[in-house]
Amino acid sequence: MALETRSSQALDTVHTDVLSQARLACYKARDAFYTCLEKQSNKKPTEIASVGLLYPVECKQSREAYAKQCRPTWVKHFDRQYCQKKRVTRLLDDNESRRGPLSLPQLSTFKD
């Protein structure tokens, strides 16, 4: 009985330093991926992430590290934030040629 009580108390303990380190590792991986996206913005995006985010194959390794370091719900949340930020930037940009919808690759599966 005493052994069960001791082990259940050990499981209920929250190690905030471990959580903090994991969160910082997630943020670092996220920043590396989005930095790669900005650097490779002139390349054609061929890979598909969550929430419709497209990215070039050069960023695939950093995307995998990002998805590994962060919880899936966080990845989805950060991707949504990034897409929203880019959408607002595109709409507010003074360059007329960049306004309007993004051009998305056409899938050949929908051809008649």
List keywords for this structure.
112 residues; 59% helix
Summarize the structure in words.
It comes from Salvia divinorum (Maria pastora). It is found in: Mitochondrion. InterPro entries: COA6_pln (IPR048282), COX6B-like (IPR048280), CX6/COA6-like_sf (IPR036549). The chain is mainly α and 112 residues long. It has helices spanning 2-12, 16-39, 60-69, 72-92, and strands at 47-48, 54-55. The chain has a two-stranded antiparallel ribbon with strand order 1-2. Helix 2 runs antiparallel to helix 3 (60-69). The chain is elongated. The model has no long low-confidence stretch (mean pLDDT 79).
**Overall spatial form:** elongated
* Overall helicity: 55-70%
Largest sheet: 2 strands, antiparallel
Mean pLDDT: 79
Q: Which series of helices and strands comes N to C?
A: HHEEHH
**Beta strands, count:** 2
Rg from C-alpha positions?
Answer: 20 Å
Distance from N terminus to C terminus (CA atoms, Å) equals 69 Å
Task: Tell me the structural class.
Answer: mainly alpha
Number of helices: 4
Main β-sheet, spatial strand arrangement: 1-2
Provide the β-strand percentage band.
under 5%
List low-pLDDT spans: none
